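Is uridine-5'-diphosphate placement plausible here? Inputs below.
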Amino acid sequence: MGKITHIVVIPSAGYSHFVPVIHFSKRLVELHPEIHVTCIIPILGSLPSAAKPILQTLPQNINTVFLPPVNPNDLPQGVPVVVQIQLAMAHSMPSIHHTLKSITSKTPYVAMVVDSFAMHALDFAHEFNMLSYVYFPISATTLSMHLNLPLLDEETSCEYRYLPEAIKLPGCVPFHGRDLYAQAQDRTSQLYQMSLKRYKRCWFVNGIFINSFLALETGPIRALRDEDRGYPAVYPVGPLVQSGDDDAKGLLECVTWLEKQQDGSVLYVSFGSGGTLSQEQMNELACGLELSNHKFLWVVRAPNNAKADAAYLGAQKCVDPLQFLPCEFLERTKEKGMVVPSWAPQVQILSHSSVGGFLTHCGWNSTLESVLHGVPLITWPLYAEQRMNAVVLCEDLKVGLRPRVGENGLVERKEIADVVKRLMEGREGGEMRKRMKKLEVAAVNALKEDGSSTKTLSELALMWKNVA
Ligand code: UDP
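Reply from A.M.:
I modeled the complex. Tokens:
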């Protein structure tokens, strides 16, 4: 092997900001073994337990450096989780700087790739003579929104949800202001101000990686890569998601259950690593699933009436979520459904032939995992950019059904039963399944040796090698 090219990668604390960057690193060194990654890992409280199996299977050319954990008690309480993660990252900056100083004193590093919440660290890239990149585990549509938000902010005086016209971004499906990501729903909030600052910073990096691929988001990606628009360089390198091998062992009871079900007969229901419902909404969902009379595999989480992302940092570990299900629900549905408390091996589930639909909160990782396994969706966005993802899935790609939220703010049981039936047995569902199968093929192709995402990553790797 020729000369080694060294790069630094910095994820953020919190499962969903840690895992994608690790997958990016794995993909990079797998395709380009002459690149060596040093991964500097910040920790808020403790490392998410689901992250541990992933770290145990890292290849030799990814080194890890664990930073001293930030104590959650040193951070303001009661702020949104994403604010907490960003503040934790700000706390980690001195130790990141210290680590960078130490490693670059021995070896020259060409580039720094950071998670979007670790963007402060890019201020050190210049000091240590590195090119600067952000890895956003998001869609091209969401990145387009990020890059255009500073301008929209200047041009708009009201909250975006009151805009009379749909928001139209180059190449993207138009969406209503109320479907804009959660961080832009209250422009007076600290979260909005922090986000805006980050998105403005994006314009000054050497490049931005996104977890999407040309065939999935052709319009938005072409617009982002159109040189006339003056965006920073954008590299779609996805779909990069976890493989079933990363899933913790010992959680396989549900897979055994799936083995006994008919092909395409089971609806998988899960709200990502953090999604929670209110008690009332949980009751409606339970009754809706029962009413649909379809088989289901539901990852049940304890309800939270205040916050949809209440479990994001694994705060709910001690509570048994099954106690919040309606009385005798488990008994009544024991032939129809399987419930798994809090966490399930999602990729293994989605790759199982018994699974025919996925009721999802539309986190981008879950979305891509479903695409990669050709499973059509019921979209139930909760927080972050999930509403935007739901619009892309339902209105642009037409691979998902979005249940109506009633005037009382709840998706009611009848509506749930209806969409489950439409997806699992109707012609409409069949069409969506076909479209999803096409996207599955396109996703697999994007990652082949001559696939669009592979080629994009290789162009960049070659450039880094030439700089080194
Ligand atoms: N996940 C899982 N089991 C669960 C819930 C989530 O393996 O019970 C994984 C899922 O496969 C995905 C990630 O956690 O890779 C969730 O990421 P996503 O972007 O969908 O949502 P977020 O957690 O960021 O809201």
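Short version: The mean pLDDT is 94.
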